[in-house]
Amino acid sequence: MRVEYTPIYRPNLGLAPWAAMLDGILQSDRPNHDYPAFDIEAVGDNQFTISLAVPGFSPEQLLIETENNVLTVKGEKPQDAGKRRFLHQGIVSRNFERRFNLAEHTEVCGAHYRDGLLTVSLVKRVPEAMKPRRIEIDNVGQVLNPAPAQATLPIA
């Protein structure tokens, strides 16, 4: 059994929980765990892009899906009928499936393909109710919304 530690080092976008990362540590024998190469870039306070190097793939051969806070990018090429004979094949163009853990409220807002690079745009939209809010302190010393007084029971 091969233990893979890359989920620990793989960046989770938007600070996803550690438990989700640790679930994948003992997954062994995952083919293509380092293919395709990718970059993750913060392009704003709550905006990110993931760029994947997918040489030889056309946009029609790529699939992007999100489910349960996991972004999955798949690339599938039709099987060659063995007509090509390579003397050296340095450009990897095998099928792949790459997964990225997303934090809550992180959404895919678009994708772009150009010159062998697939760029997926992400944005983190935290609902207003979950954002921190500032509570003003009254300097007069009065409570603005006092809690109702609790009734006391007589001691028998």
From TrEMBL:
One Pfam family hit: HSP20
Coiled coil regions, renumbered to chain: none
Residues of the signal peptide: none
Keyword entries, A-Z: Stress response
Gene3D superfamilies xrefs: 2.60.40.790
Key word Acyltransferase present: no
Xref: InterPro entries: A-crystallin/Hsp20_dom (IPR002068), ACD_IbpA/B (IPR037913), HSP20-like_chaperone (IPR008978)
Residue ranges of domain SHSP in the record: 29-140
Family: Belongs to the small heat shock protein (HSP20) family.
UniProt name for this protein: SHSP domain-containing protein
